[in-house]
From TrEMBL:
Gene3D superfamilies: Ankyrin repeat-containing domain (1.25.40.20). Coiled coil: none annotated. It comes from the Bacteria. It comes from Lysinibacillus capsici. Keywords: ANK repeat, Repeat. The keyword RNA-binding does not apply. Transmembrane segments: none annotated. PANTHER family: ANK_REP_REGION DOMAIN-CONTAINING PROTEIN, CYCLIN-DEPENDENT KINASE 4 INHIBITOR C-LIKE. This is Ankyrin. InterPro entries: Ank_Repeat/CDKN_Inhibitor, Ankyrin_rpt, Ankyrin_rpt-contain_sf. ANK repeats lie at residues 33-65.
Length: 201
C-alpha cells in the first residue's frame, strides 16, 4: 500500500502525495531499497514534492540501503534547491555515505560550486571531515576534479572556509602536492597563497 506514496513522490505527483497522506499513509515508509517518499522524490529532483513532504514532517535524515539520504544525495547530485530545503529543515550534516563522506565531499569532487557554497555558508558542515579513503573535500576536489574553473572556485571556497591544506591522503600526499603532480597550475597557486595564511593564524 505505502508503495503508492513512494511511487507518487518519485514521480513528483504532489497532489497524489497529499491525498495519500490525508488517508493516513506513513510519510516515512520505506521501499525495498530503503527509500522513503522524500528520498524517492530527491532522487528524481522533485523539488516541490520534497518541499511538501518536509512541510508535513518527513524525516530527511533516514538513509536508504545505499546509505544515501536527502542531503547526501542532493549534495552529490548538485540539486541545489533540495540542498537548501534540507539545510532549512535541519538536516544532520554529520551523517555519512557508504564511503564515509559527508555531503560536501562528493559535491566538491563533482564541481557543484553552488552546493558547496550553500553548505559552507548556511550549514554546520565540517570542512575537514575525512572519509574512508582518508580524503577531505579539498583532497577530493583536487584528486578527482579536472582542475578547471569550477574546481578552482571550489578549492578557493574550501580554503576560505578553513580547509586544512596540510591534511594529506593515506600516503601523506597533500592537496598542493597532488595539484603539482596533476599540472593544475591555478589550484596550485590558490593553495600556495593559502600557506602563509595558515602559518600566521
Amino acid at each position: 500500500m505505502n508503495d503508492q506514496l513512494i511511487h507518487s513522490a518519485a514521480n513528483g505527483d504532489t497532489d497524489k502525495v497529499l491525498a495519500l497522506l490525508q488517508k493516513g499513509f506513513n510519510i516515512n515508509t520505506t521501499d525495498h531499497n530503503g527509500r522513503t517518499p522524500v528520498l524517492a522524490a530527491t532522487y528524481n529532483n522533485q523539488v516541490d514534492t520534497v518541499k511538501v513532504l518536509i512541510q508535513h514532517g518527513a524525516d530527511i535524515n533516514i538513509r536508504d540501503n545505499n546509505l544515501e539520504n536527502v542531503l547526501l544525495h542532493a549534495g552529490a547530485s548538485g540539486y541545489l534547491e533540495i540542498v537548501k530545503l534540507a539545510i532549512s529543515a535541519g538536516a544532520d550534516t554529520k551523517l555519512t555515505n557508504r564511503f564515509g563522506g559527508i555531503a560536501i565531499i562528493p559535491a566538491s569532487e563533482r564541481g557543484h560550486v553552488e552546493v558547496v557554497r550553500e553548505l559552507l555558508n548556511h550549514s554546520d558542515i565540517h570542512v575537514n571531515h575525512i572519509n574512508n579513503l582518508h580524503w577531505t573535500a579539498l583532497l577530493e576536489a583536487v584528486i578527482l576534479g579536472n582542475g578547471g574553473e569550477k574546481h578552482q572556485e571550489i578549492v578557493q571556497l574550501l580554503v576560505d572556509h578553513g580547509a586544512d591544506i596540510t591534511i594529506g591522503d593515506q600516503d601523506g600526499v597533500t592537496p598542493l602536492q597532488h595539484a603539482k603532480k596533476l599540472g593544475f597550475y591555478e589550484i596550485e597557486q590558490i593553495l600556495k597563497e593559502a600557506v602563509p595564511e595558515r602559518n600566521n593564524s
